[in-house]
Design a protein that fits this description.
CATH topology of the largest domain: Rossmann fold
Order of helices and strands: HHEHEHHEHEHHHEHEHHEHEHHE
Shape: elongated
Oligomer: single chain
Strand content: 5-15%
Number of strands: 9
Largest sheet: 5 strands, parallel
CATH class of the largest domain: Alpha Beta
Number of helices: 15
Helix content: 25-40%
Length: about 325
């Protein structure tokens, strides 16, 4: 983009000035690459057709359109988006699914080569709509594939209800920004495949016939229940509120954050299909009641664990943790 955009290209030789000159380097790179690889592999070009800088940069209606038209048949596939990264990877708070469509809509009419685009497509229905409309030939789905690496397979198998849809929170992006391992709100196994041996779909079967009590039906408690239920344990999930979801019940009502409720919807849907899981709404549980329940192990969700520590005397807390095996959320996969 630095060579293509007149905002950054101040050269006065054959690689600067007119758009044809500014596109010269890209043209030569494509041609040289195709000469080098021959017919051994396809050459793909990713190009931002709009920098969202108005007349100060490349726009889809002007030079973005013209560059595609100028180089239309050179690459084997066009991968088009908008620039820069902050625009290309917008969150659900500020953009809807398919938010890049109006910028890339013209590309298919300018080339006979396949076109792939992005826009945080998470719904199979939206993906089908885009493909059938002829807007693009393929859909790039990086963040949706982080949330569910088996997204294409589940669509192919007609298992749309099993898809963990990306919520567009961009916690995956913050990992890059903060130089820490990648994480995903929807997929807790992301980044832990090697270190902990976690798999996004497969999980070890139970090692005993112990029953489990999960206290707190927020995001943490719901994932605990889903994972333990998938392992085959007899699980009871309790929450003091009439609705499961914890903090997300409020957060998902904020402007632009309705998609965050998918964290709750996905897990409740999975849990409700498990005959070995019982859910109790409007059921607050104290430490003594947890002991009386008779479960072999007690898992406390994030808030519930904190409340136990705050409301139970230290001696009682130690006694409670000895009598009932109280576990942290991470133990669900252990």
């Amino acid at each position: 983009m630095h060579f293509l955009s007149k905002r950054t290209n101040r050269r006065s030789d054959e690689y600067g000035g007119s758009l044809e000159n500014r596109a010269r380097l890209l043209r030569e790179l494509i041609e040289d690459t195709k000469d080098a690889v021959g017919d051994r592999c396809a050459v793909v070009v990713r190009l931002a057709v709009d920098q969202l800088l108005g007349s100060d940069g490349i726009t889809a209606a002007s030079e973005g359109h013209d560059v595609i038209a100028m180089l239309a048949e050179l690459p084997d596939l066009w991968d088009v988006n908008i620039a820069d990264w902050s625009n290309d990877s917008q969150t659900a708070r500020f953009s809807e699914e398919g938010y890049q469509e109006r910028y890339i809509a013209q590309v298919k009419s300018l080339t006979s080569k396949p076109v792939v685009g992005v826009g945080r497509y998470t719904s199979p229905d939206a993906m089908v709509r885009v493909l059938k409309s002829g807007l693009m030939d393929m859909i790039g789905a990086a963040r949706p594939s982080i949330a569910d690496p088996f997204l294409p397979q589940k669509i192919e198998q007609g298992r749309a209800e099993d898809i963990r849809e990306c919520i567009g929170c961009n916690i995956c992006v913050t990992g890059d920004n903060q130089c820490v391992p990648i994480r995903c709100t929807q997929n807790p196994t992301m980044g832990e495949e090697w270190r902990r041996g976690w798999h996004p779909e497969r999980i070890a079967a139970k090692r005993s016939d112990r029953s489990v009590l999960v206290i707190g039906g927020g995001p943490c408690g719901l994932e605990l229940t889903r994972a333990l239920g998938q392992r085959g344990y007899e699980v009871t999930l309790c929450d003091q509120n009439e609705q499961f979801g914890g903090r997300l019940l409020l957060e998902s009502k904020l402007p632009g954050l309705a998609s965050w409720h998918r964290v709750v919807d996905y897990r409740l849907q999975q849990i409700q299909r498990m005959a070995n899981v019982q859910t109790l709404r409007g059921s607050p549980v104290t430490a003594s009641e947890a002991l009386e329940f008779g479960a072999s192990a007690v898992y406390a969700g994030h808030r519930a664990a904190r409340e136990f520590d705050e409301t139970t005397a230290q001696t009682d807390s130690v006694s409670f943790r000895r009598e009932a095996r109280v576990c942290s959320p991470n133990r669900a996969h252990a």
